[in-house]
Amino acid sequence: MIRYQKNRLILENNSKELLEKESGGLPFVCNFNESHVFIGHHIPWHWHDWFEINYTERGSFHLQTADQVVEIHQGEAVYINGSVLHAYDFPEDCGYYSLTCDARFPGGEFGSYLDRKYFSPILRSKSLSILHIKPDTERRIRLIGYTLEFLKYLREEPNGYELAVRQILGDFLLLLSVRKRNSVRYMEENNRKDSLKEASA
After folding, report:
1. Concatenated DSSP letters of 106-158
2. In a 3-state reduction of DSSP, which class is residue 78?
3. pTM
4. Which of 62, 32, 68, 28 is nearest to 48 (CA)?
5. Which residues of the chain are under the pLDDT cut of 50?
6. Which residues contact 195 (CB under 8 A, 6 or more apart)?
7. Taking Cα atoms as reference points, which of 101, 16, 105 lies closest to residue 54?
8. Which listed residue, of 3, 36, 104, 193, carries a Cα 20 to 30 Å from 97's Cα?
């Protein structure tokens, strides 16, 4: 299910977005957002426990976090981890999809075997707040492909579409976890090289 013409966020006093109130009992919410319906072409600072995936169909937007601003263009996606404070500015007319999802939907209960092995390294990573996904590498093209695939299921809603979306989100997060493990190995290797250089100096 994709909702259209969302024009405001339901926020608590601490800026937490209350997604459960608009999910209708589903463990995810998907909106197609149009920039012109938001006051001042801006979405204010907010956060939520659920992770989020945005895909830009038209135009571009600026995604702000506490320590960076990223410009997301047409045909690009961005992953936003749960509990990350963020805001949006729209310098031009923009239409984009926003999927927010309870991490337990693809990963199972927190602390479960699958959660610990595959999903916790991403979903509860303190070093990954957002990931800008451009179609410029094979892995990122696959991530965008998964995004387009689950959006197709959400638009058409065939029988059992929720299960298909869960599988695709699992594949998406698994590919992210591979990237995370590779990044950790790269940093560890660099640290070892630096240590050897210092020892031999």
Report:
1. HH-STTSHHIIIIIHHHHT-SS-SEEEE-TTSHHHHHHHHHHHHHHHHHHH--
2. strand
3. 0.86
4. 28
5. 182-197
6. none
7. 101
8. 104
